[in-house]
Design brief:
Helix content: 25-40%
Largest sheet: 4 strands, mixed
Strand order of the largest sheet: 4-3-6-7
Strand content: 15-25%
Order of helices and strands: EEEHEHHEHEEH
Distance between the termini: 41 Å
Radius of gyration: 15 Å
Structural class: alpha+beta
Length: about 160
């Protein structure tokens, strides 16, 4: 990952998600959270390649429980090395991810350090699971590796947002 700074983990529930710019695998620039159509959304932040295992478990769990919410994978990099090789990194992801999912994979390079500071990046193999409400405020956060209990709590919070 190159030169990286460690940030202590923190729970950002109740905070507004920072405004960041990323590029999805369709090569479209996306502003998070502004471009999320004012709907509740789940962001699965991954700080290292090994976080993909945890992200995949979350994606499978959300799919198997038929959870109706827009979900975005957000690979989040910091440092000069990833920025320098972003074309190669993105092409590698395109080769391993079905084209039908490219729209929902938004890689953040320039603002990667800001996001890592927002959630903390200790234990980087764990995804940062963030449920945003329709205004971009963090409603739910989890960073301790996939669990059924955490999935159920995410679903409960999502239902509460939809009931409001």
């Amino acid at each position: 990952m190159g030169c990286t700074t460690s940030y202590s983990n923190k729970n950002p529930v109740g905070e507004t998600f920072p405004s960041v710019k990323g590029e999805n695998l369709e090569k479209r620039y996306i502003n998070l959270p502004a471009d999320l159509a004012n709907e509740p959304s789940v962001l699965l932040l991954g700080f290292v390649q090994n976080a993909q295992f945890d992200i995949d478990r979350w994606l499978i769990g959300l799919d198997m429980t038929k959870t109706k919410v827009d979900v975005y994978e957000v690979p989040t990099m910091q440092g000069m090395f990833p920025k320098f090789f972003k074309t190669q990194i993105n092409e590698g992801m395109r080769k391993g991810i079905p084209k039908s999912l490219w729209k929902g994979v938004i890689t953040v390079y320039d603002d990667g350090e800001m996001l890592q500071k927002f959630t903390g990046n200790i234990n980087p193999n764990n995804a940062r699971v963030i449920l945003l409400d329709d205004s971009g405020t963090v409603n739910y956060f989890y960073d301790d590796g996939f669990s059924v209990d955490a999935l159920n709590k995410l679903k409960q919070n999502l239902q509460s947002l939809k009931d409001d």
